[in-house]
Specification:
With about 290 residues, the protein is mainly alpha-helical. The protein is built from eleven helices and no strands. Helix 8 runs antiparallel to helix 9 and helix 10 packs antiparallel against helix 11. The two termini are about 20 Å apart.
Amino acid sequence: MNLLKNISYREIWSISYPIILGGVAQNIVNVTDTAFLGKFGEIPLAAAGNGGIFYMVIIMAGMGFTAGGEILIGRRNGENNAKEIGKIFSHLVYCLLALSVIFFLISKFSIPHLINAVSKSKEIAQYTIEYLDYRIWGVFFSFLCFAFRAFFVGITETKILITNTAIMGIVNVILDYALIFGELGMPMMGVAGAAIASVIAEVIAFIHFFWYTSRIDHKKYHLFKFTRIKTNIVNQISKVATPIMVRNFISLTSWLIFFLIIEQIGERELAVSHIARSFYMVLIIPLWGFS
């Protein structure tokens, strides 16, 4: 009962709103990508949208696995067991790096064949593969950012998420403008430019997370002490994370199938559907943040 008295709506809001704002900012980047590519043409917009969904299937699977580490870090934080937090963080990094390599190889060698097999429009297939060919390099940095995100959410220090996502968003928007249209002395790259801009933004976000974490009291949590892998910790994370990871994968895969069906109807219909999806994602973020 004493513990419950310390919990208030204000406390929940103070933890939630940075996550909400961070998530909204990240999806505003997607809306900006949609707006820029919409001016570049319907087919590039539709193709980048499909490529983005393929990438989101991978990202959400990684995010689902991260949730397992986040839950365990939160549990250890509640127990005031800071030393164990560092161990969980290290093993989360190990697992996410291994997953990122697996997903990278699948994307490079399997997904292009799948896209060609299911796409009615050869132009959309070509642009989608071009987008993913560049975009998939960001998976390593996205997954590492997930590890840092799990750490900060687990210890309820979520305000850093606002700054990090704002930096990522600003970098992405500027580079989108420069690389899609060939402005600011950059080459005009269209769909590939949008993908490269997103990858660079993810690299910058990772560097910012690493820099910020190195400046806090990381010794308290025994961070960056990457010892040998302990199977019991990996099993603990996997036991909690696997159901969430599978759920996210199935959920996003159903979206992917939906857009592949829309692509069979027509290129304009697909482009319009991706515009609607971008705005829907912005509206749904507050619910995810509170949860």
